[in-house]
Amino acid sequence: MGRLLTNLEGESILLSWSGSMFEYLMPLLVMPTFENTLLDETYKAAVDWQIKYGKKTGRPWGISESGYNMINASSNYQYRAFGARFGIKTWFGRRHCYSTLCPVMALMVEPKKACENLELLHKKGIEGRYGFYEAVDYTPSRLPRGQSRAIVYSFMTHHHGMSLLSLAYLLLDKPMQKLFEAEPQFKATLLLLQERVPKATAAFAHTTSLEDINYKATAQETRILQTAFTPIPEIQLLSNGKYHLMISNAGGGYSRWKILPSLDGMMMLLAITGAHSVTSVM
Hints:
The chain is α+β, with helices and mostly antiparallel strands. 30% of the residues lie in helices and 17% in strands. The strands form five sheets. A three-stranded antiparallel β-sheet has the order 5-8-9.
């Protein structure tokens, strides 16, 4: 069917786009699984890698797509996929955000180890009024100074819905899977879920794209200026699309509503504030 396979520590595993737990275990929320099949081995290998990576880092394991510790102009947490190293599209060095949804979904595959991980999240205070918070972000560039982690204080409805399906799988003897198998249209193609593990697996070689090479989290970096007397004044530009603000490290600047200054006006303002170049744009 054109799917890519790779070998992960001696086990065959299907590649997902980002390698996130969300992608790997979402089908299991509604579809049945069968022992010694390619899909079943993929589920187990994906969860096993997460557990081993958690032990390696000494943190609660659970890499999946989730909100992370960066907000936009509307004060909403940003959201993206964080994946394991066996995803087709990998983001190395950015695997420091841990979703609480991930171990809940893993209850369907490794209930004991997933429960231990959830207990660890509970001990670390990663929960609120409506259950576990969205995620815990350990990415250094997204942390306040002096802190080792940042809790993503949000609750996503569809993530909680998926959590309830995972708990139903474990505690209510797979009700959604039984409904899936009872549907006549699915019965006709149920054999597709029983594909055996291939004896030979071609290794998939990850290639680095230009996006990976040139990636620079400009908006995540913090500049700390100790003096106003720099050789070239430092400038910060801020805008939400309507309100525009410029300020220099010497305290000069301007603010505009809706209308941006002309090029001549900009040069005049830069001259007034003593700036020679714009060094940062947000």
